[in-house]
Amino acid sequence: MILVHKLISGKWKILIIWYLCGGSLRFTDLKKKLPNVTQKMLTNQLRSLEEDGLIYRKVYPVFPPKVEYGLSELGENIVPMLKEMYNFGILYSKNK
């Protein structure tokens, strides 16, 4: 439990993983989905998730540079847990 908390703690990590469930996204796409996050914070959170092996970063050799982020095979294993958290949120809001 402590390890999982360490891996996904941070204000934006869970949301980043959640948005990547639908497929790979470019940095600008993630920034649009998270309008309140600063560019520096998003970069730091993405780097941390990449270092932990939960996401991958793919750089295309084009100009201007194109970079995509997606869930790694390991990161895909978190998706069911996030879906359960989402479902609990809906249930909780209905009963509150």
Written overview of the protein:
The structure is a single chain. This protein has helices at 2-8, 13-20, 27-33, 39-51, 73-76, 79-95, and strands at 25-26, 55-60, 66-71. With 96 residues, the chain is α+β, with helices and mostly antiparallel strands. A three-stranded antiparallel sheet has the order 1-3-2. A hairpin with a 5-residue loop joins strand 2 (55-60) and strand 3 (66-71). The chain is globular and about 50 Å long. The mean pLDDT is 93.
Descriptive keywords:
96 residues; alpha+beta; three-stranded antiparallel sheet
Distance between the termini: 27 Å
How many β-strand stretches?
Answer: 3
Shape: globular
C-alpha Rg, in Å? 14 Å
Treating each run of at least 4 consecutive H or I residues as one helix, how many helices? 6
Strand content: 5-15%
Helix- and strand-based class?
alpha+beta
Average pLDDT number: 93
List segments where confidence is low: pLDDT < 50 over at least 5 consecutive residues: none
Q: Main sheet?
A: 3 strands, antiparallel
Strand order of the largest sheet: 1-3-2
Roughly what percent helix? 55-70%
